[in-house]
Design a protein that fits this description.
Blueprint lengths: L1 E7 L1 H5 L3 H11 L2 E8 L3 H7 L9 H8 L4 E8 L2 H9 L12 H5 L8 E3 L3 H12 L3
Antiparallel strand pairs: 1-3, 1-4, 2-3
Bound molecules: ribavirin triphosphate and magnesium ion.
Catalytic activity: a ribonucleoside 5'-diphosphate + ATP = a ribonucleoside 5'-triphosphate + ADP; a 2'-deoxyribonucleoside 5'-diphosphate + ATP = a 2'-deoxyribonucleoside 5'-triphosphate + ADP
Pfam families: NDK
Cofactor: Mg(2+)
């Protein structure tokens, strides 16, 4: 059994996509373990995205993720990280297949609706950041 961290980003929250997104993970068979509405502080955003600190888009990414409420979740199941990433789709919605969340609901990379951890190690780190180490 594995855990992953998933977050509906401010664009997805504002558009009322939280229920649709939860439903897609549930239909796949993953199990919701934690979920909460929150606003991400700049400090948390910078820690969450620390791997991207040197990228040209880092400032805009932090501005965006702190711009409004998000819905943070922990999902559990076999290969939870990989299964969640395949439900979410490729980073740029223009490359994401129809049937994925980004393929169905996104247009541009800056507003790609949802985040999913990229490895079991990242998942545990991100769950710790957003939900504490329980
Ligand atoms: P995420 O972390 O949000 O689940 O997305 P990801 O793994 O598919 O993509 P990652 O490389 O980790 O990038 C994190 C987020 O940064 C924004 N981004 N913008 N302007 C750009 O070229 C660019 N590249 C990435 C996206 O919002 C991406 O989700
Ligand atoms: Mg990532």
């Amino acid at each position: 059994m594995e855990r992953t961290f998933v977050m509906v980003k401010p664009d997805g929250f504002k558009r009322g996509l939280v229920g649709e997104i939860i439903s897609r993970f549930e239909r796949k068979g993953l199990v919701l373990a934690e979920g909460k509405v929150m606003t991400v502080s700049r400090e948390l955003a910078e820690r969450h995205y620390s791997e991207h600190r040197e990228k040209p888009f880092f400032g805009e990414l932090v501005d965006f993720i702190t711009s409004g409420p998000v819905f943070a979740m922990v999902w559990e199941g076999p290969d939870a990280v990989k299964n969640a990433r395949s439900i979410i789709g490729k980073t740029n919605p223009a490359d994401a297949a129809p049937g994925t969340i980004r393929g169905d609901f996104g247009l541009v990379v800056d507003y790609n609706v949802v985040h999913g951890s990229d490895s079991p190690e990242s998942a545990e780190r991100e769950i710790g950041l957003f939900f504490g180490n329980n």
